[in-house]
Structure prediction request, 484 residues.
Amino acid sequence: MIDSKKNLFRLLTVSLLLVLAFGCDKEQPIKPDDPQGQDPGITIDPDLLELPKKELRGAWIATVWEIDYPQGARGEAAQKEKFRQYLDLYEQIGINAVFFQVRGMADSYYDSQYEPWSKTITGVQGQDPGYDLLEFLVEETHARGMQFHAWINPYRISTGSNGVFPDLDPKIPKELTKDYNSIRIYNPALPEVRERIAAIVREIITNYPVDGLHMDDYFYPSLGGGESMNDEEEFIEYGGSFSSIEDFRRDNISKLVQMIQKTIADARPEVIFSISPQGNYDNNYNVQYIDVAACARNGWFDVLIPQLYWTGTTFSSRLEWFAANSGQTHLMVGYGIYRYESGASGDFGDPSSFVTCYNLARSYSKVSGCLFYNSSSLVKNNIGITDTIKGVLGSKVLIPYLGRTPENKPEAPTGLKVSGSTLTWEGDGSYYAIYKLDPGGKKVSLSGTTKDKSYILPGKGRFFVTSLSRANEESKLSEMAVCE
Prediction:
């Protein structure tokens, strides 16, 4: 009987030691702990921990002239595979947002009431591809945990030479257009044009769950050879309150920007409105007639993404100007990585120049993201520029809240439990971020995100969870969960 009791005691002792040694294999309560696991009586205050800096990391996909997409891929299966290949690459690099050109030349990547199907999809303008391409693009992007921003060109309809252009699609009223030697555009001076573009924006954002609406830098056309803008008649009719025709043109662009913002605010206020002007601020003001500083100062868009396609002192001086003139808008930097190639002039023959520019931009507290033009250049990886970008971006980060109103942060998750290698919790977020405590106990690193209320932990450690809204508003850190 005594030997039986001794054996039972030994068995219980061994079982207890196994439970203590492999605590993650059993559901365990959350308890305070120190970062090094030396003193279980020390409490970690989640409010004092430093989280990684958030950053939107985007890539432009240009469809005009099939620069990036679909590049000759015809048919549903081939086009879906082409897009998935881009997303695979983005995941490897660390990109978390897609800026896809859904309207490059008054055409569309969806069934539009106002403009024809894009020629780049099937090779024939106006031809229905037989499936909802934009629905697929958005759903596939969101399935990867990335944002989808619908990129439109505001005015361009077609290009040509000597004033000769392709036939105008019947959906587009001729009286709203204006022809120059090499480009046909919607006439920026006409109120009806602004209303039409705003209606197209409404069509996109109400029919598809896009995260953002994005415009690039084609406002008034950049004309050459002394060609006139030929808008004196419009100035006489609509510009009576302006002392100069240049101010009238700038006001036309400002009115369009304001109307698009109002359209978004009325229809889907959570959609982010971004503009990517030229990096040359003088050209913006005096050639394309967008007063970037005034638009930013008045808060008429949410994110400013200048195309800073330079290196060295030109990059730094123009970054400084945009940082000083970005008002309350969020600022990101567009990088022209297509310029990196063997034998390129200046610093574009050496990918380390990108590292210098990126580090400088990230040192600005105003800068909250970066975009790369273009996606086919990321595929080519000339002189290792894509590898360099991947190395610089490093670990995964969250996209910052980019809304125009104060954050409405959700409540932090509760009831964290660890069972085996699975962490579970309760919460009402659109998705969740899981953080791991770094050595030293002052910072946390992002382990991953999930839409579920459970997560397979990568290993032992001290973990926290936050709730995030669809607009990336983030709660405080939860209490700590320990896996040892």
Remarks:
- Residues 11-23, 25-41 have pLDDT under 50 and may be disordered.
- DSSP finds 13 helices and 18 strands in the chain.
